[in-house]
Amino acid sequence: MPQILRMPSEDELPRGPKRIFVSELFTYFRAAGRPSPASIAAAASQGPQPARVTVSRETVHRLLKGETTSTWPKVRAVHEVLCQMADHDPTWRRFSDSSDYDEDNDTRTLREYIRDLWNNAVDGVEVDDGPPQLAPVPEPTPPPAPAGGWGSNASSGGWGASQQPQDDPWATGTPQKKTSSQQVYSDEPPF
User: Fold this and answer.
1) Which of 19, 24, 98, 116 places its Cα 20 to 30 Å from the Cα of 122?
2) Do residues 105 and 161 both lie within one domain?
């Protein structure tokens, strides 16, 4: 007789987004009467489109043990099968009759909620953390003033206030006086 799957302990699956995802999936698994991974996989491959996806019993087992997050089509197929076996409609509101939760009238469906948890598990985002934050973009720093050579100008310290090199033919402003180290350029394009 095959062993019945149980929710992984915290030693097997530590607290975090993956555990929250697996816990939610287990809610449907329990409501469906703890069917075998083989029966879930068989039902997923015979389900209606678009939920029909080939899912192995091993993938179902690994999903319920928290060993994989798999892909969304496979997770959706497993979720749809568990909902069907539990007589739940995946388009029902997840928190419609919960008296202890009403965060701004959360209208997510069972499917939308499990998908959000799956995304959090894949990204490693805690539920309370919100969407993943991107690293701040560093402010651009002006290039260091040249110590000599091309573009250096002792009177302006290299780069001018307009960040244009002094010998730039496209620079705007008044014509420069010719010195021994500079050429004179017109403000007009060369064509």
Assistant:
1) 98
2) no
Residues 79-103 have pLDDT tens digits of 999 999 998 888 877 765 555 545 5
Quote the Cα angle for 77-83-84, to 5°: 90
Quote the CA–CA distance of 54 and 152 in Å, as a whole number.
67
Asked if pLDDT for residue 7 goes beyond 50, the answer is yes
Q: How far apart are CA 52 and CA 76, in angstroms?
A: 9
pLDDT in tens, 48-85: 665 567 899 999 999 999 999 999 999 999 999 999 99
Nearest-angstrom CA–CA distance, 113 and 57: 24
* Same domain, residue pair 28 and 98: yes
Residue 41's domain spans which residues?
17-123
| pTM, two decimal places | 0.59
Whole-number Å distance between alpha carbons of 175 and 14: 70
Residue that wins the pLDDT comparison between 136 and 44: 44
**Same domain? 152 vs 115:** no
